[in-house]
C-alpha cells in the first residue's frame, strides 16, 4: 500500500508524541520537583487540583520574584511551588488536542465501514489516551492528505513542546554510512524510530530546505506533492537499501 507523505508525517508525529508521553510518565515527578520539598514524597499532593494550585502559586511567585529582583532582593531559599508551569500547560493540551484530532478524523471517516465512529471505537477511544491514539494510528492511513496534514501539524507542535519541556530529543537515528539524500545530496538522512514497529519507521531528510519539487523531483517518493518535506516509508525501495545497515549490523551501531 502506498501512503501519501502527509499520512506518513502524521503517523510519525503520532508515534513520536506517544513515545514522549510515555517518557513523561517516567520522569514526571522529577520534573515537577524543581525545588526541595517541604515533606516526604508520599505526603506530596499529586492531584490535578493540587497541581493547579501549585501552578497558580508559582505564577504569583514569579511576579513577586521579578519585583524583588528589580529591587535587588535575592531569593532567600526554596519556594513551596514545585511545578513547572510549562509542563502543566502542555499536559493540559495533550487530551484536547488528541481528542480534536480524533473528532476530525472520525468526522471525515463517518461512512467508513470500520473506522466510522461506532460503538466499537467509542468503547475503545472515547476517553482513554491510548484508545484515542490507537484509533488515530488505525485511521490516519485512511484519511485525506489534507486532513493528515492538519493533524500532523497539531500533533507535531505538541510533540515538540512536550519534548522541549521534558528535555527529550527527537527519536531519530542518522543512517549508518551517511548516505546522500537523493533530493538535496546532503548526508542528513535520519530514521524516525518512535514507532515500536520497525515496519512503521520512516526516513526523513534533516535538511529543512529539502522539500519536494513535484513529479520531476529526484527524491523517488511514490507520491511527490510539491513543497512537502521528504519522507520515505520503511518498505520503499530507497529505504530498504539505506536501512539494511541498521538491521544487519547492530554491533557497528553501538560501536559508532
Ligand atoms: Zn534532502
Ligand atoms: Zn521530492
UniProtKB/TrEMBL annotation:
> Superkingdom, according to UniProt?
Bacteria
Protein name per UniProt: Uncharacterized protein
Whose protein is this, by species? Micromonospora thermarum
